[in-house]
Write a structure and sequence with these properties.
The chain is α/β, with parallel strands linked by helices. It has nine helices and eight strands. The protein has a single domain (2-215), classed as P-loop containing nucleotide triphosphate hydrolases (Rossmann fold, 3-Layer(aba) Sandwich).
């Protein structure tokens, strides 16, 4: 199964992708995670992307399309994948069609996650994660069970993303509505767009996604 999780920053794409990995046994391809790894490793791509990401703007189509094209060649993508944060522009959506068409494949589902702006800003402002294992937490509800200790690895260092601040979040939202929201129409016209109410609690959103995916099969 090849699916896209489409939605604004903080909609819950990463959270839901992680649940789908277990459910369907296919990998999550997050361009945000791949770019952050490149920034940490100070690769050529990372050096180009760093400032752009800190400003909340979009990294060039050329760079992200190449990253995804390379990633879907990996053997673990043979049975499908979950695209999280890609495509984000019409050029990226066209490139996705071309990549898959060249392999005789197609997208199965594009799931639009709808969440109100105030909620997005609140979620992003509260997000933090374990510096060691990456487990995600939020000031608003999903805190570690033992304060200051990661539930998963038991260590005590937490980090916040540099772009999770109110000013950068405003730019990220503008980028979404200007560059990415047009993909809703693009995929609607292809007949593969479904939407879920991303305002619901995490487990309910996960159930709704599972229903949408199974109904379409
Ligand atoms: P990226 O990493 O993709 O960030 P984003 O799209 O801004 O999305 P987020 O990771 O902020 O949110 P999410 O929807 O995954 O939400 P999450 O599940 O974490 O991109 C970062 C940057 O990289 C971009 O700005 C750009 O510069 C660059 N980039 C990446 N891809 C690119 C591309 N294709 N083209 C060009 N540039 C690109 O949830 C957020 C928080 O809310 C968490 O704390 C979570 O626990 C909580 N939460 C989740 N769901 C719920 C719920 N239902 N109820 C309550 N809380 C919830
Ligand atoms: Zn941890």
């Amino acid at each position: 199964m090849r699916l896209i999780l489409l939605g604004p920053p903080g909609a819950g794409k990463g959270t839901q992708a992680k649940k789908l990995i277990d459910r369907f046994g296919i990998p999550q391809l997050s361009t945000g995670d791949m770019l952050r790894a490149a920034v940490s490793a100070q690769t050529e791509v990372g050096l180009k992307a760093k400032e752009i990401m800190s400003a909340g703007k979009l990294v060039s189509d050329e760079i992200v399309i190449q990253i995804v094209a390379d990633r879907i060649e990996q053997p673990d993508c043979e049975n499908g994948f979950i695209l999280d944060g890609f495509p984000r522009t019409l050029a990226q959506a066209d490139a996705t069609e071309t990549m898959l068409h060249g392999k005789g494949l197609r997208l199965d589902h594009v799931i639009e996650m709808r969440v109100e702006d105030d909620e997005l800003v609140k979620r992003v402002a509260g997000r933090f994660s374990c510096a060691h294992c990456g487990t995600s937490y939020n000031d608003d509800g999903q805190r570690p069970k033992v304060e200051g200790v990661c539930d998963k690895c038991g260590r005590s260092d937490f980090v916040r993303r540099p772009d999770d601040n109110p000013e950068t979040m405003r730019t990220r939202l503008k980028s979404y509505y200007k560059e990415t929201a047009p993909l809703v129409g693009f995929y609607y016209c292809k007949g593969i767009l479904k939407f879920v109410d991303g305002m619901k609690p995490i487990d309910e959103v996960a159930k709704d996604i599972a229903t949408v995916v199974s109904e379409a099969e």
